[in-house]
Structure formats: C-alpha cells, structure tokens
Amino acid sequence: MDDDKPILEHVTDAVSTAATATTEAAKTVVKKVRKVAKKVAKKVMPKKKAKKGAKKSAKKTKKAAKKSAKKAKKAAKKTARKAARKTAKKAGKKKKARKSKR
Prior knowledge:
- It is built from 1 helix and no strands.
- By secondary structure, the protein is mostly helical.
- The longest helix has 95 residues, at 7-101.
C-alpha cells in the first residue's frame, strides 16, 4: 500500500481489478460452455436430420404410391380397351371366315 494514495483509491482499484477478473472469468466460462454446446449439437443434429429424412421419405413413398395407383388405373383402362379391340377384331375375322367358307 502506497502512502501517497488515499485509502479510497486503493479500495476502488482493488474493486475494479476484482470486477475485471470476474468478467474475464465469466467470458472464459461462456466460451467453454459454447464449445461444449456446439459439440453436443453436432452429436444431436444427425438424429434430427434423420427424422426429417424419414418424414421426407414417407412423403416420397406416399407420392410414389399415388403415382403407382394412377399408373395401375391407366394400365387397367388400356388393357380393357385392348381387350375390347381384340374381341372386336376376332369377331370380325370369324364373320369373314364364315362367309368365305360358305
């Protein structure tokens, strides 16, 4: 303690140094906590992405199912049309064949 400075200044210096020390300590603690939080987030994030991926894949499967149902309906219509055409052609051929036999 210097005799040149009054007691009040010594106390204010001590308090200010203590305050700066505590703020620095708090900053370092915050930095460490942020680093740890980032590490934890990296470990947790893939799980969230997997959930999102599962949702997206579920949507894709629903869309694919709808598309396949539409394709099946179209295919059924096409086969019905083709069958009708074939039967019409066969009926026409049979009549022609009968006429030629007579």
